[in-house]
Design brief:
With about 300 residues, this protein is an alpha/beta fold. The chain has two domains: about 140 residues, Cobalamin-binding domain (Rossmann fold), CATH 3.40.50; about 140 residues, Transcription Regulator spoIIAA, CATH 3.30.750.210. Strand 5, helix 6 and strand 6 form a beta-alpha-beta unit.
Length: about 300
Amino acid sequence: MRILMVYPEYPDTFWSFKYALKFVSKKASNPPLGLLTIAPLLPANWEKKLVDMNVEKLKTKDILWADFVFIGAMSIQLNSALDIIKRCKTFGKKIVAGGPLFTEDFEKFDMVDHLVLNEAEITLPLFLSDLEAGNPQRIYHTTDFADITKSPVPDYSLIKKSKYSSISIQYSRGCPFNCDFCDITALLGHKSRIKSTAQIIRELENIYALGWRGDLFFVDDNFIGNKPVLKNDLLPTMISWMREHGNPFVISTEASINIADDPDLMKLMTNAGFSTVFIGIETPHENSLPNATKRKTKTEIFWKV
C-alpha cells in the first residue's frame, strides 16, 4: 500500500511567517507534527511519502503514485485542503482526512472518502482494522481522549529538514482553562495529559540522530499544565540529557502567564535549554477577562497594573 500524506498550505497570515522566513532561507517554521505522529501507526510494510505544501508543491506524479491520500489540517488551511481534495478526486484517489479542520466541520467534506476524527491514536487503528477486513466506514470518531503515553515517536525521517527553521515536539495535550476564543479544550479536553519523561527523551534522541541542531519547539498549548512532574522529573532529566549531548537544541514553547509566579520552574526551564516562552495576554483590563471566560489570577491582575 502506498500512502501519500499531504499537509495543506497556510495562507498569508501572521502565523505563516512567510516573509520572516525568507531572512533565514527557510520555507516553513515547523513540520506537520500530526502527520508525522500518525505515520508510525500505519503498517510498517506500507510505503509512505510526505508532501508539506508549505515547503514544496504537490505534484501530479505524487498523487498518481498513491493508493490513499491522507490529509491532516487546521481550520486556517481550509482553502488549500479543498484544492487538494479536488485534485485527488480528479484522479480517482481515495482520501482519508483528519485533524482539527475535519473534526470540527466534518459535514462539509462530502468528497472525503474516510474521515478519521478526534485523536488518531484511538480512531486510526479502527479504520485500519476495517480496511484490512474490506469494510472501511466513512466516519470514525470518539468522545474519549487518547492515552498519549502510548503515542509513537514521530517519524521525522519523512521531512526535508533543511526547509524548516525549527523542529516540533509535543509533551502534553489539553488545557485546564476554558477561554471562549480557543477550541483546544473542545478538541483535547480540560485535563493536561502528558507523555512520560522516557518518551520525551526517546523523541529528543530521535531528533538528535536525525542530525538536527538548533531550534526546537514544544507545541503544547500550555507546557506547564502539570508543574509537579515538570519540576521533579522531566526538566531535571532534560538538563542532564542536554549537557551530555552538548546542548544541541535551543528550545521554545507556549505557557500560561502564571509561569511568572514560579521562579524555580523558570530556572529549571532555562537550565534545560528553554530560551523563549510565548504567552498570550488577551486584555490589560480586569473587567474584560470574564467576557473571554478567562479565569482571573493574581498574575493577570498584576499585568493589568
